[in-house]
Design goal:
103 residues; mainly alpha; 2 domains; 77% helix; elongated; disordered N terminus
Protein backbone atom coordinates (compact mmCIF):
# COMPACT_ATOMS: atom_id res chain seq x y z
CA UNK A 1 0.00 0.00 0.00
CA UNK A 2 1.29 3.48 -0.83
CA UNK A 3 2.14 5.62 2.17
CA UNK A 4 0.80 9.13 1.71
CA UNK A 5 1.90 10.49 5.08
CA UNK A 6 5.43 11.20 3.88
CA UNK A 7 6.55 14.14 1.77
CA UNK A 8 7.97 12.50 -1.34
CA UNK A 9 8.51 15.79 -3.09
CA UNK A 10 11.93 15.73 -1.46
CA UNK A 11 13.64 12.50 -2.50
CA UNK A 12 15.50 11.11 0.47
CA UNK A 13 18.86 9.38 0.70
CA UNK A 14 17.20 5.98 1.15
CA UNK A 15 15.49 6.18 -2.25
CA UNK A 16 18.73 7.35 -3.82
CA UNK A 17 20.83 4.64 -2.16
CA UNK A 18 18.41 1.89 -3.16
CA UNK A 19 18.43 3.07 -6.75
CA UNK A 20 14.68 3.67 -6.83
CA UNK A 21 14.99 7.09 -8.46
CA UNK A 22 17.09 5.73 -11.30
CA UNK A 23 14.86 2.72 -11.93
CA UNK A 24 11.66 4.79 -11.87
CA UNK A 25 13.09 7.45 -14.17
CA UNK A 26 14.50 4.92 -16.62
CA UNK A 27 11.21 3.05 -16.77
CA UNK A 28 9.39 6.27 -17.56
CA UNK A 29 11.95 7.98 -19.80
CA UNK A 30 13.66 5.14 -21.65
CA UNK A 31 11.06 2.35 -21.55
CA UNK A 32 8.27 4.79 -22.38
CA UNK A 33 6.12 3.60 -19.49
CA UNK A 34 3.27 5.82 -18.41
CA UNK A 35 3.08 7.39 -14.96
CA UNK A 36 0.25 4.96 -14.21
CA UNK A 37 2.37 1.96 -15.25
CA UNK A 38 5.23 3.09 -13.01
CA UNK A 39 2.75 3.66 -10.17
CA UNK A 40 1.38 0.14 -10.56
CA UNK A 41 4.79 -1.51 -10.93
CA UNK A 42 6.26 0.05 -7.77
CA UNK A 43 3.09 0.76 -5.73
CA UNK A 44 3.69 4.53 -5.76
CA UNK A 45 1.52 7.60 -5.94
CA UNK A 46 1.63 9.92 -8.94
CA UNK A 47 3.39 12.51 -6.76
CA UNK A 48 6.10 10.01 -5.85
CA UNK A 49 6.68 9.09 -9.49
CA UNK A 50 6.80 12.73 -10.56
CA UNK A 51 9.18 13.53 -7.69
CA UNK A 52 11.54 10.73 -8.71
CA UNK A 53 11.50 11.83 -12.35
CA UNK A 54 12.09 15.47 -11.38
CA UNK A 55 14.97 14.46 -9.10
CA UNK A 56 16.50 12.37 -11.88
CA UNK A 57 16.11 15.22 -14.33
CA UNK A 58 17.80 17.66 -11.93
CA UNK A 59 20.68 15.25 -11.28
CA UNK A 60 20.95 13.46 -14.62
CA UNK A 61 24.63 14.24 -15.17
CA UNK A 62 25.44 12.72 -11.78
CA UNK A 63 23.43 9.57 -12.59
CA UNK A 64 25.17 9.30 -15.97
CA UNK A 65 28.60 9.71 -14.38
CA UNK A 66 27.78 6.91 -11.93
CA UNK A 67 26.64 4.70 -14.81
CA UNK A 68 29.89 5.34 -16.70
CA UNK A 69 31.92 4.49 -13.60
CA UNK A 70 29.93 1.30 -13.07
CA UNK A 71 30.32 0.33 -16.73
CA UNK A 72 34.08 0.85 -16.43
CA UNK A 73 34.15 -1.54 -13.46
CA UNK A 74 32.09 -4.09 -15.37
CA UNK A 75 34.42 -3.82 -18.37
CA UNK A 76 37.46 -4.20 -16.13
CA UNK A 77 35.96 -7.28 -14.45
CA UNK A 78 35.15 -8.78 -17.85
CA UNK A 79 38.73 -8.31 -19.09
CA UNK A 80 40.08 -9.75 -15.85
CA UNK A 81 37.78 -12.76 -16.11
CA UNK A 82 38.67 -13.38 -19.74
CA UNK A 83 42.39 -13.10 -18.95
CA UNK A 84 42.03 -15.53 -16.03
CA UNK A 85 40.08 -17.95 -18.22
CA UNK A 86 42.84 -17.94 -20.83
CA UNK A 87 45.40 -18.60 -18.08
CA UNK A 88 43.37 -21.49 -16.67
CA UNK A 89 42.92 -23.06 -20.10
CA UNK A 90 46.64 -22.79 -20.79
CA UNK A 91 47.39 -24.40 -17.42
CA UNK A 92 44.90 -27.22 -18.10
CA UNK A 93 46.53 -27.89 -21.48
CA UNK A 94 49.97 -27.92 -19.84
CA UNK A 95 48.79 -30.43 -17.22
CA UNK A 96 47.28 -32.57 -19.99
CA UNK A 97 50.56 -32.54 -21.91
CA UNK A 98 52.55 -33.42 -18.79
CA UNK A 99 50.24 -36.36 -18.05
CA UNK A 100 50.58 -37.56 -21.64
CA UNK A 101 54.37 -37.43 -21.37
CA UNK A 102 54.32 -39.35 -18.06
CA UNK A 103 52.14 -42.11 -19.54
Amino acid sequence: MVSHDRDFLAIDAEWRAEGKVHVIAEMYIYANATIEQVMAQYDLSAAEVHAAIAYYDDHQSQFEAEERALQALIDQARVSSETRLVQLRARAEEIGRNKAIES
